[in-house]
């Protein structure tokens, strides 16, 4: 079994420096944009984590309420069955 030749080539020095400059410029623009925002408009890492937790708890509440609704439907079905006799 022959080894496949790896097609990866390193970018030239010019490309590396150009990518670094582009990334640096993008970060500067983002920093400049964020500096003009009010604190309540900014997104922080901790607020992102809080949102994930909130969504998880919302899912748990939704699943619990769906389970309660299913139980209620079963009870109502049984009541209607026995009342209808």
From TrEMBL:
It comes from the Eukaryota. This is Uncharacterized protein. It comes from Phytophthora nicotianae P1976. The lineage of its organism: Eukaryota, Sar, Stramenopiles, Oomycota, Peronosporomycetes.
